[in-house]
Amino acid sequence: MEYRMLGNTGVNVSCLSLGTDNFADPTPEKEAKRILDIALDAGINFIDTGDVYADGEGERIIGRALKENGKRHQTLIATKVDHGRRRPGYSVDDPALFTPNDHGHSRLNIIRACENSLRRLQTDYIDLYQIHRPSPDIPWTEQLGALDDLIHQGKVRYIGCSTHAPWTVMEAIMVSELKNYARFACEQPPYNLLDRRIENELVPLCQKHGLGLVAWAPMAMGVLAGRYTSADNYPEKSRAALRGSFYADRVTERGISVGREFAKLAQRIDLTPAQLSILWVKDQKGITAPLIGPRTVEQLESLLPVKDMHLDKETRAVCDKLVPPGSVVADFHNTADWMKMKVNWEPGI
Length: 349
Prior knowledge:
8-stranded parallel β-barrel; two-stranded antiparallel ribbon; TIM Barrel; alpha/beta; single chain; 349 residues
């Protein structure tokens, strides 16, 4: 297993990170624990989750699994504090469960969410605590001040953010420098061959200022793995079928068309499309690790060989012809209100 430094922290993380968004939704606990054990035995030491995953059950499964296998201290746990409307116990659909102060990354919500995650994970500390989606109406002094306090209290080791605009990441860096607050160690954006927009600003920013990049959706939600054959009919148990429009809107005819050519390329070099999609992200400039989020043990085992692979120049060049650097054919920033550049690239333009 190759290990890479997470930003400027000095902490080495595996070049593949285990994403756990499928734990309990739909992967049952017994299989989720097997996935975690196999990943750790293979050398993966970086586990990503979030307080909203399966309404908190994802964190609970990880907590129980690490308590049973005794591997907590060889595991780096990254979790997230959501902006509030989806956190366990809160719902905008039920006014009785939602109050005005349940939304946003205020000190109140950050500290409360961290303590709840610690309980669910059955741990004394979180290795990497991330702001999940921006709260543009809440000053960085409020957000970073709370995160800095959590670090000084020993509840959090490092902090980061997820799906933030490059300029907001730069604002956070500036505030940390001015106020002597803890500094973000990494950003977690969507990134795959179908949506390469982070290459335009976010990747150069993170390289210059020493932030790691942990990419979610490296397989383009299965589009690059050949999971979808139509933008209208979704396979059973696919995320587009199970999780509504936020996921379904990422499945486009142009993306599926690129996926077909991508599958042919993978076949020519004796890889599965899923393996090639992970490899492509893993070996892109500035990337610390792609998040692999297997639903089954078999899916995990098929992806693990990528840890020892390297992307050659010829394959990289073919991928660049399919989707040029910095461009986009499927919108994986569709949950990011700040992303104004929409999907408008056409072959030959």
